[in-house]
Each structure stands twice: as structure tokens, then as C-alpha cells.
Amino acid sequence: MTVILKTRYLPLEQIGWGGFGKTFRSWDAHLQQQCVVKQLQPRNTFRKTFSHSELESIKKSFEEEARALRDIKHEQIPQLYDYFELPAPNESQEEFRKELFYLVQEYVQGETLDKELNKKGRFSEAEVLQDLGQLLNVLKYIHEKKQVIHRDIKLSNIIRNENGTLYLIDFGAAVKRKLEPKIPVEQSIAMGTPIFAPPEQLAGKGIFPSSDLYSLAATCICLLTGRNVNELWNQNRWIWREYVSVNDNLADILDRMLSYQPEERYESAEQIISALSGEISLNPNSKPSGAGEEPDYPTISDRTSFHSQINRLIKKLFLPIGLVLLGSAIAFLIPWLMHPPICDFQNKNGFSCGEAILIPKNPMISDAIFADKERGSTAFGQKDFNQAILYLQKYLASNQNDPEARIYLNNAKAALTNNPLKIAVTVPIIDDQLNGSNDIAEQMLRGFAHVQDNINQNKGINGRLLFLEIASTGWEKKKIRQIADAIATQENILGVIGYYTSDSIQEAAPAYDSKMVVISPTSTAVRDSTFKLNNYIFRVSPDNSAAADKLIKYIVYHNLNKIAIFYEPNETFAASLKKEFESVVWDKKKQLVNECRVIQSTTEVLNCLRQAKERNAEVIMLAFSDKVARIAATLIINQSEDITILGADTPYLETVSQTNISPDKLRIAIRWHRSNSANSKFEQESVKLWGTGDVNWRTAMSYDATMAMVEALKRTQGNYTRQRLYEALKNHAFSADGVTAKVEFNDLGDRKPLPGIGVLVKVENNRFVVDKTSYN
Known about the structure:
Layout: E1 9-17, E2 21-28, E3 33-40, H1 52-70, E4 80-87, E5 99-106, E6 111-112, H2 113-120, H3 125-145, E7 158-160, E8 166-168, H4 173-177, H5 199-202, H6 209-225, E9 233-234, E10 237-238, H7 248-257, H8 269-276, H9 304-338, E11 351-352, H10 367-381, H11 385-398, H12 403-415, E12 421-427, H13 439-457, E13 466-472, H14 477-488, E14 493-498, H15 502-512, E15 517-520, E16 537-539, H16 544-557, E17 562-567, H17 572-587, E18 591-597, H18 602-614, E19 619-623, H19 626-639, E20 644-648, H20 654-657, E21 666-670, H21 681-690, H22 697-715, H23 722-730, E22 759-764, E23 767-770
Parallel strand pairs: 12-13, 12-14, 14-15, 15-16, 17-18, 17-19, 19-20, 20-21
Antiparallel strand pairs: 1-2, 2-3, 3-5, 4-5, 6-7, 7-8, 9-10, 11-13, 21-22, 22-23
Pfam family, one: Peripla_BP_6
InterPro entries: Kinase-like_dom_sf, Leu-bd, Peripla_BP_I, Prot_kinase_dom, Protein_kinase_ATP_BS
Binding site for ATP: 38
């Protein structure tokens, strides 16, 4: 979405997406402030054009629900500022949708609880109690004062601002429901997020205040345990108490909130507030005070002595029994120890080889289809690999384009051999896809899975199948280090493929030094005094000097002289690209008229553009990370008038391709693009494997990295050790087949820039295409 809506709302960055549409951080030009714009798309089961009367009915219902939403005024709920509908753009590929609906809401600066949990790990009991109290007061307001039910409470829909205040966001499930005429309630995608949503909500049997209380409790147990909610639900029951010890009073309250039947839960947020203060009994069947002989239950404050008495009784009476049980347990565990789990990180947070699903469900995939992936993963964790294969094959028949499931399927087949070759693959997975895209992780996984599928379909390497253990590194330095340390200690894992950014590979590198090889598909910062990597790190994307060379040749060809650089400070890739580009600018005697820092602020971008225009810049070079590129690239392109925009890798975004710009306006240097070799073996196999040939440079480079690892394994001549793998890759004669060129490494471990690697792309008809002009 790149147009200015209603002449005032300018989308800056896509921050969410789902079955109904997209969410953008935007700029309100009238009020001169940030806001959130939700673009909603009506849907029906038959993907047909809505009739005029249907659209009028949808419009009326939308306005009624939006007005109700606008009337909600609470200091911890983002205010709805505006709502409207507009015709879909003419270039929309989804012609059955003729109208788009918009909600404009207050923008809350802060961090969602899922991101906070990912950074700090599990919350203390005191922290959860404090947060629970805040959220119960919000629910008390909406349930009692406004008769509104949220319907989708979860970690990613709660934001904490810098003052510690929690905001409940993404109201509007009722609004979305009105955009689904004729769709049965149980098939609605406005029914909340599976596993967080209570059974009655998913079954379409009614929504109650206690439905929100169920979702709030599911959120709290994630915070208490530090685990993904999927790990806390097993065989149709919550098992969260196995992972954390908390006060019995709080635990009982949460369990009652999580009751399967709505009538067994608390009726209101007020009742829970009272329970937490010890004012009411926790027994669902208890009578009001004075109504009978039912004894009072102890509150949090008077349980200490009670617990002490219980502990003494346990030691006195049950210790002998415990010793007997311990001996029996050891006898039971001996066979298990002789045949340990196939996964080296069985049920460890952030890891999976098949026993857990790391990438959240795409909202466009139905629960019924996704259930087969969940069943396959459960069977995998139980070592029932034949059953896992059946479920995963069934799932992939309905959702072919899922690389995680493809890897798990191949892993299940490899596990049956009892002697696979294990490689770790690391990707930056975002835990909640509704609050951030996992495009990068999935694009990399497709490259890994493509090679694994080819190898295993052809009986593996000397009869041994390839087994990939997925590690979700996230984006935080601490987690990246922890994941690297964990992998390095597992001697069964021969090597590692992954690490998306130069910052992440630099953070992880010390853990692997002199221990095991890592092949990064996508890191491109130039190795120098500020960016050092050890000899065990190999990279298959040529470094930034190659991209800078292609961009300067474009500038020279078009006789452009005055150049501005917009750059992100303190980011390794951006700093390296800026340095390499500047060196060739000076070498070609071009004029650098402006260097301008951009981090996240729209004001920064507009100030940089103003300076560039004042100094008559003919070219703006973008040196950004992915994060800043998503925020700033589209805005710069739209506001730069006749200035040519250049970049490398990170502005290669769908939002950029959808901008209405001249083909001569933009050039981006990337490692590979599909239209450069439309009939290649790689693309033909991609169509067969994923149902599409529309794969990008991240997938291609991940394929090349995996091909290099496989070739190195072959060259160990059956002596599969970490050291032999390193020696094979370090050999000057090493070469592996890549998508468009051989993979060969220089003395540093970086890929030699052979012909066929690297292209310039431009935008034509809202798609990236290769610029086939020769600029040599």
C-alpha cells in the first residue's frame, strides 16, 4: 500500500498481516502524528465478486461496528480515530474484492509481550501478577461498561510502553466478522488465534466474557513458563504446571480460567480480581459467605505456614516411597538412555527437528489442514516416524509451499534409518506471524529443504540421509550466542548452515571457532578490521564490494555525478556497504554531496530528502538493514521525485515492487533473481516442490550454501567428522554446483565472485525484473 489515503494517511511500514488484510504504521499528515492503519478486505467462501447489495450491507454493518469501537475510551486501549472504505486499486490482482475497508487507530510506541518474552525469558510470578492485574481492569471496563468482547487476547496483542503500562490492541474482531457475509461462524478467520482461543469460540458456539478470560490465562502461562503456547497444550489438556512452580492460589485461578466449559470459569474479570485478593473462594461450586458449611480457602497471605506443614509431612511419610519410585524410574530410563531421542534438542525452546512447530500458522491456512501438520509433529516427538510421515504428506498435499513441514517429512524418513547425517540450520523466526512476517526464515528454509529433498530422494550420501535440525535464532544478540553455544556442544551435529545477517554471524562465530564449520547464505559485509570472522566461517554470497561495483557502473553509464548516501549507523551490513560504495565513488571521481543518518524516524527521512534535493543530488544510495529498509525505503522512493534510488539486497521488498515508479527510477543489486534464468533446473524443481517458481535470492543462496555443505560431506570419503568437513571446504580445489555458478571459496572463506552471481533489478508492472543492460 503506497498511496496516501484520504489525502492524509501515509503508510510507512507494514507491521502485520492476516486473513483480512494488512496493518501499517502510518503518518497522519493532518494531525502530524503517527497512527496505525488497518486495511481490511471482505471475503466469502467462493471468491466471487460481491454484488452491489452485498457491499452495501457489508458497508452498513462495518460502520455500525466501527462506531461501537470508536466509543471505547480507555487509557490502555488505543483510540479509534477514523474509519472509511475505498475502492480497491485497479491493479489489484484479487479482482473478486471490489472494496477495501480501513480502521485508523492510535499508535502505541512500545514492545509486544511476545517480543519481551523472547528477549528476557520467562516472567516472575510477581511480574505476571502485576500484568494480570492491569489487563483484568481493562477487561472489566470493556465487558461491563461497553459490553464488548475482545476475542483475540494473546502475547502479540499486548504492548508495554516505556512507562510499563500495558495496552490491549487489535480490537475489532466484531468488525472483521461483518466482512465475512455468508461464511459460517466456525469457518470465520475472525474467531481468534487457535490455542489461545477457547473451545466454544473456535467451534462457533458463542462468545462470552469468560472467553476473553480463557485467552488471558493462556497468555499468562506463556509468560510464567517462557514457553510457546503449543508446548503447554498436550492431548487436549493444559500441562503448564509441569514447567513452572507458582503459588497454588495463582495456579488454581489460572486453571479455572482455562476450564474447558465456559460455565466452569469465572463469570467476570471482577471475580478474578477478588480471587487474587483472597476475597472469594477458588472452588467453582462454593456458596457465598455464610450460605452454608463450606470452609474458607486460604489466601496467598496465609498459606506460608500451611505449606511448611505439608512439606514436613511429605518428608516424614513419603521419602521412603520416593526412593523406591526413583529406583523404578532409573530402571525404566535405562532403555531410553540406550536409545536417546533423534533430536539433539528434544523439546528445547527455539529448536526443532520435527517434534515442535516453530513457524506460526499462516492465517490463510485452515485449522483443519494445519491440524495434520500438528499431528505429524506430535507423532514425530513420540518417535512414531511412520505416522509422522503419513500426516506430513497429507498436510503437504494441501499446503505444498511449507518448507518447515518438508524438512520434518525428510527428517522423519531419515530417522527411520537410525544413521542420518545431522546438520543444523539457523533462521530468524518470529514467534507470532500476525505481528511480523516470517518471509525471510521461510525463504531460507526453502533453499535448505530443496537440497535435502533432492539428496534424500536419491538415497542420501553414501546411503546416509540428510537430517536438518532447525534453530530459531531470533534477532537478539543474547539468543544468537546461546543458540550457537548449544549447537557447538552437540557433537552429533557436523556443521551449521544459516545466520541471515552479518551482525548475527559475527555474534555466533566465536562459539564455532576451531570446532565446526558454518556456511552463511546471506552475510555480505566485507571482512576487515571492523568485521572479523574466523576461518571456520564460510559465506556463499559475494561481499558488498561486488554490489558496490555493479551500482557504480550503473552511475557511470548514465553519467550521474552528484550522489547522496542515506545510511543506518551502527549496523554492520549498512556500514560495510556504505564504505565500499564510497570508495568506488571516489575512485570514479563522482561528487558525494550528502551523507545522512536514518534509523526509524519519518522526520529523519524527510530531513534527509530535503537536504539531498537542496544539494541537487542525482542519486540516493540506501545503506540500510532490513528493518530500516522496511520503514524507510518506500517513503524515500515516493518522495524523492526525479532522483534515482540505488540499494543492495535490503530494499528488495514486496512493498517496494508495488510502488508506481518509472523503470529508470530504481536499481537494486542482489545475488540472484528468478527472471535471469527462467528455465534453470533450480526453478523447474522449485515449481515441482513448492508449486511456484517465484523464489528469490535468499532461497537461491540458501540452496547454494546447502549444496556446498553436501559436497563437502561427500569429499570426506565417509569419514564424517567436523574436522574433515572443515578440511574439505578449505581445500583450494573445492567446488560445488550452485544455482547459476559454481561455489568456490577464496582464502578467507568467502565466495569468489564468478560470472553469473549478482544482478541489478528494477521495477516493471509492480514486479522486480532483471535489468539486462550491460554496464561494463
